[in-house]
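INFO batch 0412 | record 1 of 1 | parsing
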Amino acid sequence: MLSNFDFADTADQKPSFTVDFYGYEQCEPSHHFGPAIRTHFIIHFIRSGKGIFISKGKTYSLSAGEGFLIVPGDSTYYRADDKDPWEYYWMAFSGSDAEIILNKLGLSINQPILRFDIAAVEYIRSSYELPPSPGRDLLYTANAFHLFASVAETMGYADSVPQSDQYVSMAVRFIHTNYSHNITVENIARYAGISRSHLFRIFKQFTGVSVQHYLLEYRLKIASRLLQSTSLSINEISLSCGFTDPNYFSRSFKKFYSVPPHQYRNEMFITQA
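INFO prediction complete | emitting tokens
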């Protein structure tokens, strides 16, 4: 039993983090926006000047090198200073990984204020000025992570903020993306940002199986699809699914499906015919 983390068709998976747009404004004195809600996560990075940000009844006075997070659905208000109005860039983003990243940075609806290296706004400036191109979305994402890294270097990066199910989701996503490589539980734990023993404990708690067992089953599931839908040799399928030893692949496949790979392919061919 694999609980909610069952085998998904990786071709149908959507990006787990997406930059929706970048923006820039040199505000006029007392320029303001809100109270209003937004549908994206938005971070404003203040390059110069001053202003206030209001969220959840709290007022924050902010200046260059600071920023504020707007969470989807939260009504916020912000206003530039009367005498020294702020200049800021902003980045709007979404996706299942967005909240995980923010949590690890210590940012949330209750803690929306951040600090960053002022030079990092160049990543937004360069993104904001990018002309349309086939690779623009990739550059958007790369620059977003440079910005997050700047925040992490300034504020620290929390190793234990995400909930256990988020760690497990990260581990499962890593397996789905890297099953064809010679990955280990240590690789998976490192990606999730936790120890191997911690991952072992929570993974079994949420999925009902160990990390090793899940990885093996996922590889075998992919192998079964390839046996049904391609003319690749057994050895090619074995290597494509991350098995470096074809004999171990055949033994594991037979144990899981009760028949060896070649027989499985023949029986599926007859069934489909």
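INFO post-check: The chain is about 45% helix and 20% strand.
INFO record closed
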